[in-house]
Amino acid sequence: MEATRPSSDLQNKYLEISALTRKSQEPVFITVNGREDTVLMSHVQYGKMKTELELWKMLAKA
Asked: Where in 1-62 does DSSP place strands (E)?
């Protein structure tokens, strides 16, 4: 399940947010003034997403 956190949590609870991205393998949306601003994900999740995107690009060319 995706999570949404305020930007103040980046300073105050970074380790908690980082652990959440690794444990859930889901992105965490960071809000500024109640509006979505940034998306954080684990390094493993990012690598998988990048690999999948490259595969889709290769399939689209074929």
From this structure: 3-6, 28-32, 35-40
Report angle CA 58, 25, 44 to the nearest 5 degrees.
55
Name the residue among 57, 20, 22 with its Cα closest to residue 42: 22
Range of the domain at 8: 3-61
CATH number for the domain that contains residue 21:
3.40.1620.10
Structure-block tokens of residue 8: 């103040």
Q: Round to whole Å and give the CA distance between 31 and 37.
A: 5
For 3-43, the pLDDT digits (tens) are: 888 889 888 999 999 999 999 999 999 999 999 999 999 99
Q: What angle do CA 45, 1, 18 make, to 5 degrees?
A: 50
Structure token pair of residue 23: 């444990």
